[in-house]
Amino acid sequence: MPYDPSEFPAFAVTVDLVVLTVRRHALCALTVRRGEEPFRGQWALPGGFVRAEEDLASAAARELAEETGLRAQDSDSRPADAHLEQLATYGDPSRDPRMRVVSVAHLALAPDLPAPTAGGDAGGARWMPVSKLLGGQDQASEEGLAFDHARILADGVERARSKIEYSSLATAFCPAEFTVGELRRVYEAVWGVALDPRNFHRKVTGTPGFLVPVGGTTTRQGGRPAQLFRAGGATELNPPMLRPEV
Amino acid sequence: MPYDPSEFPAFAVTVDLVVLTVRRHALCALTVRRGEEPFRGQWALPGGFVRAEEDLASAAARELAEETGLRAQDSDSRPADAHLEQLATYGDPSRDPRMRVVSVAHLALAPDLPAPTAGGDAGGARWMPVSKLLGGQDQASEEGLAFDHARILADGVERARSKIEYSSLATAFCPAEFTVGELRRVYEAVWGVALDPRNFHRKVTGTPGFLVPVGGTTTRQGGRPAQLFRAGGATELNPPMLRPEV
DNA sequence: CTAATAGTGTCTATTAGACACTATGTA
DNA sequence: TACATAGTGTCTAATAGACACTATTAG
């Protein structure tokens, strides 16, 4: 196959973001209101074009910062505000009615933010419960997300749900310092199940390198003061945290 | 951000394939010899441009068929020859010196093929042991793969290694009918470890839906005749097959 | 016979899951 | 006081890993 720049079709390449957080015991995704056709007025995932001299990860980090103010690990060596990873790429020829667009979706996990959104290029932005966005396949069509974003969101949610099983990624949903109970509520919100607090406590505190005690305590959840921890260096969780209802 | 087709940069989009198989107790990848600059004469992963009206998965299946003759599940309802899934997307601005190319890499797992390659658009094609292609970081530079293909291959190998832990994907490396011992040798080759044949047998035959006895036996591995199985419908492997040396 | 692989059984240390109980804060 | 959450201990059923033993072929 000859390699002539004029012989292959030109594509637009975008990054779309599945930004997840846990708010009031519910897994939520960041959505933006579309200001233009097509799908004007509908909710969509945040995203935008990759620039001419920009890496895919950089483009995703830039969009994340524009929409939320969150800093992914990229910039310098300070601890990141959010976890960011590539999710999958969507390139159905008919996914955008205007032109051929290939979207490299990324998954971002962030702690609950005080301000729901910051300035971006989108009109309105909101955290919406994932159950609302994806619940009932038919509901997806009436109030659904634009383009193939429901599919992308579903893939991102499934990635998050499975990845917290065998990694310490759930701590990305927590602030820098958190309690065992708060971490447990993250698992419960993401999986939509109830976990035994005592077994959970034994499991996470017994896994070396997962949690590092930071010294203080807090009563922000009520009840007896709970120890504060920060995420340890361990990224793999072995043996994994098992999702119930197998 | 205005959505004007003339305002965004144009990208070329390709699919690259990490095609893995197990040959003579070694995990091997399909490589093709480059006939043109850049990297002329070096080995590379098979791949090619996505066509104007082609889905990404279709492009990957087409390239796989062109290079190996293998049929992924796409075409019709017959059982597929090979497993094919999207791996990740690589879009560093400098990954191709000629132009901006975004490559959507795919991972294919195939049984050992009698003919190493079939007709394709590449000059020579070979199965090369993964350990040769990736062993010793410095060795990668002298006899290494073109572009960022060493990185792509490493990601694909890691995906395969982790995915056979918790799925029945290892059967994609086996012919339609296989023995427990042959399946065990797949795990041993992919992970590069030795597994206890007795515990392995108990594990796989005790997981419902993983293996379905097909009735016959074979002595193609020598020794006592072994039952033949085919892959069952179960795709998830729960509890997972544990990789030793944790 | 030996050598090879297939397949079953048994023992033990570990652990997930269930749950009783105590500790320490707020209303 | 009642009530919330935090944290520890104990019991049991399941299982991964180690390994003894038998079965059935080829040479």
Overview of this structure, please?
Chains A, B: InterPro entries: Nudix_hydrolase, NUDIX_hydrolase-like_dom_sf, NUDIX_hydrolase_CS, NUDIX_hydrolase_dom, WH-like_DNA-bd_sf, WH_DNA-bd_sf, WHD_NrtR. With 246 residues, the first copy, chain A, is α+β, with helices and mostly antiparallel strands. Chain A has 2 domains: 153 residues, Nucleoside Triphosphate Pyrophosphohydrolase (Alpha-Beta Complex); 65 residues, Winged helix-like DNA-binding domain superfamily/Winged helix DNA-binding domain (Arc Repressor Mutant, subunit A), CATH 1.10.10. In chain A, strands 1, 2, 3, 4, 5, 6 and 7 form a 7-stranded mixed sheet that branches. A two-stranded antiparallel ribbon of chain A has the order 8-9. The first copy, chain A, is elongated, with a radius of gyration of 20 Å. The relative contact order of chain A is 0.16. The mean pLDDT of chain A is 90. Chains A and B meet through strand 5 of A and strand 5 of B. Chain A binds a DNA duplex (27 and 27 nucleotides) through helix 6.
Descriptive tags:
homodimer; 246 residues; alpha+beta; Nucleoside Triphosphate Pyrophosphohydrolase; Arc Repressor Mutant, subunit A; seven-stranded mixed β-sheet; two-stranded antiparallel sheet; 9 strands; 25% helix; DNA-binding
